[in-house]
Specification:
This protein has 17 helices and 26 strands. The chain is α+β, with helices and mostly antiparallel strands. The protein folds into 3 domains: about 120 residues, Nuclear Transport Factor 2, Chain: A; about 110 residues, Penicillin-binding protein 2a (Domain 2); about 325 residues, Beta-lactamase, CATH 3.40.710.10. Strand 17 and strand 18 form a beta hairpin.
């Protein structure tokens, strides 16, 4: 009987041990499986109560996320069965990383004694990444290689770092000198807003990266691949040598770039030149990428497109002559109180507010906003570092005056020269909106069709009229047909109360409000001009913004002409 009891006890002990081992393996497998999915909620629920009291769920998740960024991890996999030794369970995993290749490591998971409750993971910081031993923390020491050289579209050097050195702030030089500064941009310390993203790519916190212009837009290609050591405490887990990037060829034309900077002549403003069929950016001067200002009547390209698409009017539709339009009881005047009207074609050529504000009301906020968004507003441009041009949602444009003001590029509309160049390029390329790019060879042509070809042709025809006989004659080039649109955007409200003597018996004065558009106050207006040439077979689009510099047709149009001529003569 004693022998049988001893055998039964031994069998029970073995079965109990096997059951305990099985439970421990299952828990460890669940814990590591959750890690491969980024399911930190499940992981946190598996750890022992003492660790839960010490670490909140969010700080627990942060520890794991930080470890993955440190390792530059991109993919996590369990690659074998759990192996248990008492309450310790080893699970083989593979970690794919950006910098260090694929790491084959073991997750060593300790399981706490079950007691009366379910088993739990006996957690410590060494469980934040596989391969760590007790007391070890994961860290890395990395550095960037020498920053790659920027090349112009013709293969000449645009910017380079000193030989044998990684770039640091202020050390990038260019054979074009000051002419290249605006398009090249700057380099400097990693901004806080990009720190986590770049850390996950292996970029050290103290590195120098692109902050603006080409340096920002092409930063991923210029940095090369960081290299260095991945450490578990003082032990080397992995090593990768830094790998410099090849020279990056851009779309920038040195000839057009020099012309843009020369034409801007140090004024506060921005210029962008691009190829309409490809979206390739030929030049940037001043605040061409990030300068957000009300676009004024250049926005009438958008309004006209919407009106034509909705069949509200045609080029020969006739409108009454007037010096202002009355919207919500408010007089919205033409520039300098001019009397204009006639055909839609003529009204566009002379930029007649008293025609286009009511047309915007007829079009309605929903269709006006939808047209603007098709042409790129309220969307990122696709050029890193470039500002997004915006207008309010249709529901937030309330009343006739708000809609009418929006239709002429006032109200709360904000645009960059890049955005208005995109609008003009869409018209130039038959209604296909290009994706702007600084990277040579990245654009294959044939942007996304957002406006019908017939409507685009009509808008182009009316833009030709602007330069031939309207407000943009200063952009005319002998022997070349130029299409364009002027803009004179008011920066401060021009609405003020007026009084009119009533016709009633008491002769009381009635108070009204009038919005006067005056081009004589240069300090209160931004000058704009967007154009392309040759109009029938466009090769270059230019948009000019001159901040607080008067009327677009007077100051911005001649600047645009200089850049257009340079582009056409260079064969851009």
């Amino acid at each position: 009987m004693l022998a049988l009891a001893a055998v039964a006890f031994a069998v029970g002990a073995i079965v109990g041990a096997q059951h305990g081992t099985s439970a421990a393996s299952a828990l460890a497998d669940q814990f590591v499986s959750a890690w491969t999915r980024g399911d930190y909620v499940t992981m946190y629920g598996d750890i022992d109560p003492a660790s839960q009291r010490e670490y909140s769920a969010s700080s627990f998740a942060d520890i794991y996320e930080q470890a993955l960024r440190t390792a530059t991890a991109t993919r996590l996999r369990i690659v074998g069965r759990a192996r248990a030794s008492g309450t310790d369970v080893s699970i083989p995993v593979r970690v794919s990383t950006r910098l260090f290749g694929t790491l084959s490591l073991n997750f060593e998971v300790a399981i706490a004694e079950a007691g009366e409750g379910p088993p739990r993971v006996r957690w410590s910081r060494s469980l934040s990444f596989p391969g760590l031993r007790s007391g070890e923390r994961l860290s890395r020491r990395t550095s960037l290689p020498r920053r790659a050289t920027l090349l112009a579209r013709d293969g000449s050097v645009l910017a380079e770092s000193p030989a044998g050195e990684a770039s640091t702030e202020g050390t990038r030089s260019s054979p074009l000198g000051e002419a290249a500064r605006a398009v090249i941009g700057t380099v400097g310390p990693v901004p806080a807003s990009r720190l986590a993203t770049l850390e996950a790519q292996g970029v050290p916190a103290g590195a120098t990266v692109g902050l603006s212009g080409l340096e920002r837009a092409l930063d991923d290609r210029l940095r090369g691949r960081a290299g260095g050591a991945l450490l578990a405490g003082g032990r080397l887990l992995a090593y990768a040598a830094p790998r410099p990037a090849a020279p990056v060829r851009t779309t920038v034309s040195p000839t057009v770039q020099r012309a843009a900077v020369s034409a801007l002549a140090g004024q506060l403003g921005g210029i962008v030149a691009l190829q309409p069929s490809t979206g390739q950016i030929l030049a940037v001067a001043g605040i061409g990428l990030e300068g957000l200002q009300p676009p004024g009547s250049t926005f009438k390209m958008v309004t006209l497109t919407g009106v034509l698409e909705a069949h509200i009017a045609a080029p020969h539709t006739v409108f009454p002559y007037a010096t202002y339009a009355t919207l919500d009881g408010v007089k919205l005047s033409n520039a300098n109180g001019e009397d204009c009207g006639g055909s839609l074609e003529l009204a566009f050529a002379v930029s007649c507010n008293s025609v286009f504000s009511p047309l915007g009301v007829k079009l309605g906020a929903a269709r006006l906003v939808a047209t603007a968004e098709k042409l790129g507003f309220n969307h990122e441009t696709g050029v890193p570092g470039a500002a997004e041009s915006t207008l309010p949602a249709a529901a937030d444009i309330q009343g006739e005056l708000d809609i009418g003001s929006t239709a002429i590029g006032q109200g709360q509309v904000l645009a960059t020269p890049l955005q208005m160049a995109i609008v003009a390029a869409t018209i130039a390329d038959g209604g296909r909106r290009p994706a702007p790019s600084f990277l040579a060879g990245s654009a294959s042509g044939g942007g996304r069709q957002v406006v019908s070809a017939s409507v685009a042709r009509t808008v182009r025809h009316l833009m030709i009229g602007v330069v031939r006989e309207g407000t943009g004659t200063a952009a005319a080039i002998p022997g070349v047909t130029v299409a364009g649109k002027t803009g004179t955007a008011e920066l401060k409200s021009a609405c003020k109360p007026e009084t009119e003597t009533g016709s009633g018996a008491e002769g009381k004065e009635a108070s009204k409000e009038s919005c006067h558009s005056s081009e004589s106050e240069a300090s209160n207006t931004d000058a704009w001009f967007a154009a392309f040439a040759p109009a029938l077979h466009p090769r270059i689009v230019v948009c000019v913004l001159l901040v607080e510099d008067g009327a677009g047709g007077t100051t911005a149009a001649p600047v645009a002409r200089q850049v257009l001529e340079a582009g056409l003569h260079s064969g851009a």
